[in-house]
Amino acid sequence: MIGVGIFTTPGIVYGYVPDATVVLFLWAGGGLYAFVGAHAYAQLAVKYPSSGGEYLFISKVIHPFLGFLSGWASLIAGFSGAIAASAVGAVFYLNKIVGLGSIGDSIAILFIGLITIVQVTSIKGSALLNRYLTLIVVVIVLIIGLVGVFGNPISILPSSEKMEFSLILSAFIPILFTYSGWNAAVYLAEEIKDPERNIRKALLGGTVVVITVYLLLNFLYLSFIPGDLMSGQIEIGHQLATVILGEKGAVLIDVFIILALLSSVSAMIMAGPRVYFAMSRDGYFPSMFKKIHSRFNTPLIAIVIQSVWSIVLVLTGTFESILMYTGFALILFSMIAVLSAVILINDGEIDSTFGWIFAYLLFILISVAILINSFVAFLTSTLIGLAIILAGGFIYWFYHPKRVKS
User: Fold this and answer.
1) What are the pLDDT digits (tens) for 130-144?
2) Element of type H or E holding 287
3) All residues at 6 or more sequence positions from 313 whose CB lies less than 8 Å from its CB, including other chains
4) What is the pTM of this model?
5) Whole-angstrom Cα distance, residue 183 to residue 165?
6) At what angle do helices 300-316 and 319-346 cross, to 10 degrees?
7) Which of 80, 126, 253, 404 has the maximum number of C-beta atoms within 10 A of its C-beta?
8) Residues 17, 171: contact at Cβ < 8 Å?
9) Which residues contact 112 (CB under 8 A, 6 or more apart)?
10) How far apart, in Å, are the Cα atoms of 71 and each of 2, 53, 176, 241, 406?
């Protein structure tokens, strides 16, 4: 969860809603949204303890076609978009150190390519890479937190600008993108021992920790960075480090953040193929996505195709457009997955209290509001993203088991 978003999106959020108090409330609200979603997914994962995530839940409860589209969206937006955004974010920070000029996209592609090679050729190597890059994420968060304690914050003043509700909803997209990952444990459900206990613990406990970290970091951003320097700023971590440590001290923080962003690339390259594997195993996706390399014992083709599409996104989109494109798909299908939990509760398939049912319905209502606002505020990019998602229907029709058998 702690990756590209928290080191890049807070400035974008502040650009939409230039009020420190409102921004903090929005980040807290995004955390509650993620926590409710995590609770619903925990319920679903106990009911269906197999890999696949939204693809599995939606296919089982609503319809295989919608489930397929969620898996297809994971390939063309959810995981690939996160990989692309993380790589581009790393380039933004690297540019602060060495000045990349016009070769930024090439460096982002190089990052994706090198990590893909590690993930393909060595299970042990990829595990070690993920472990140590994740450790670096923890270290950078602790460093920023400690620096903030001993720094001299500026006075936070509320904005006098009138806030439009549509801008608040727009700000939620990068916030929810930043919280994405709260559902990651369900993609590995069949590989987890005692899933009823451990998936719930991973989803809910992990989300609480991340909410705390995100509120702390946003408080530090808002406390140390003047509003005019924060608004729309992508390299927000660099801005914070510069204000507190100066240009030279900021270089060290930039290096740590680059490694943290690459940890997101590594994690997403590893996790995504599990969804495509499940789809292929069920006969809804080309069989090559479930093939395991005889020597490396990894899903080589699935990993490579996912990385190639991530590179396409790097070459065709800006950071913010990738963010909005990916965020739209994540919100859409997480909403449908939570709807699946509501349906199971209504059918008596899973137990839940009235309070949680109400929370699930509120999650769905907020999602609908954000999605509608996306059509109004980002019509072209939203329509393109939706068209690409719906194009997956042709693949579903072509590979549908009943059609193939006939």
Assistant:
1) 677 677 777 777 777
2) none
3) 80, 81, 84, 322, 325
4) 0.84
5) 28
6) 130
7) 80
8) yes
9) 83, 84, 87, 265, 269, 307, 310, 311, 314
10) 23, 8, 19, 39, 24
Distance CA 258, CA 130 (A): 14
User: For 175-202, what is the mean pLDDT?
Assistant: 78
Q: How many CB atoms lie within 10 A of CB 209?
A: 12
Class of domain 5-405: mainly alpha
Distance CA 337, CA 29 (A): 20
User: What tokens appear for 58 in the block?
Assistant: 């939606």
The answer to whether the CB of 83 falls within 8 A of the CB of 261 is no
Angle at 257 between CA 252 and CA 262, to 5 degrees: 130
CB 174 within 8 A of CB 13: yes
Give helix then strand counts, H and E, for the chain.
17, 0
- Region for 194 from its dihedrals, namely left if φ exceeds 0, alpha if ψ lies in -120 to 50, beta otherwise: left
For residues 126-143, b (16+ Cβ closer than 10 Å) or e, as one string?
Answer: beebbeebbebbeebbee
Say which amino acid occupies 78.
Answer: G
7 in Cβ contact with 260 (< 8 Å): yes
Please give the C-alpha separations between residue 368 and each of 130, 135, 213, 383, in angstroms, as whole numbers: 34, 36, 27, 16
Cα-based torsion angle of the residue sequence 286, 394, 58, 176 in order, rounded to the nearest 10 degrees = 100
Q: Is 118:127 a contact under the CB 8 Å cutoff?
A: no
- Host H or E run for residue 138: helix 123-150
Chain segment 61-97, per-residue pLDDT in tens: 999 899 999 999 989 888 898 899 899 989 988 998 8
